[in-house]
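Go through this chain for my students:
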Amino acid sequence: MSVHKVYSYRQDEVDIPDIPQRIVSFSPSITEILFELGLSEQVVGISAFCVRPPETSGKRKIGSYGFVRREILDELKPDLVFTISGYQDKFTSELAKNYPVVCVELPVSLAGIIDLPVKIGIITGKMEEGRNLSYSLMKRLPKPRSKVLGSCYLEIDLASPIAFGAFSYITDALRYMGLRSIYSDQNREWIPSSLDFVHSADPDMIIYEAKMFSKYTEEDLEETIKTRGWSDLKAVRNKLVFKTPGNLDFFAHHGPSFVREVMPWLEDRVNKLQESLGKQ
């Protein structure tokens, strides 16, 4: 079997087959890409949070973001294991002691999300398919906004209120659509949010993403706003507070569906902001 060397984001040198046949992915975004590259049959194991596309329901769940059932992983005998940088760094280091792990860099921009299928395609022997997927995502992007229309506070419930700084694709996507994150001057990826700071920043728009799989409702969001003492904020007064749709990761997911689903949804909310500004 022919093999080639791949350098992971951690600069580890990993030997993998030219065309891997037993792939395990602990990254929901990479899993989505693998299926779109036509590698669903080669994917033998995924994390419990890999839910896109729906066909992943038939795949073996062998762990989570930072946990794996080793006995199952040994049974599967993967010739390629994917992880993502950042929150999986420690997990990656442990896995790499015994398995062919390629850690892929977490995108820091919208362009990085579009580039990710190319990287995965090169690693898995699906280069042409990866580039075609990337090109198709480029065509789906809304028209960028050259000027900032207003400020935005975006929070994701990751066991505590988390916001995002300059090194996040989320901040970059907001700016692409004409929104300046109130944390955009922080040179970090994610930031424990200060509720007092949000109040003092008085953003034009608030976007809230509940914990994955939760049953958090619009009524719950209204209660959260009230409990936090945010009822007097500009975004609340102008009815520009939005809960992301569904109960899956939305902004937190950086696979191809980010371009197809998140960006049009965000464009629609920005249009509502623009309408509101026109009425003032």
Summary: The chain has two domains: 3-139, 150-279. The chain has ten helices and 13 strands.
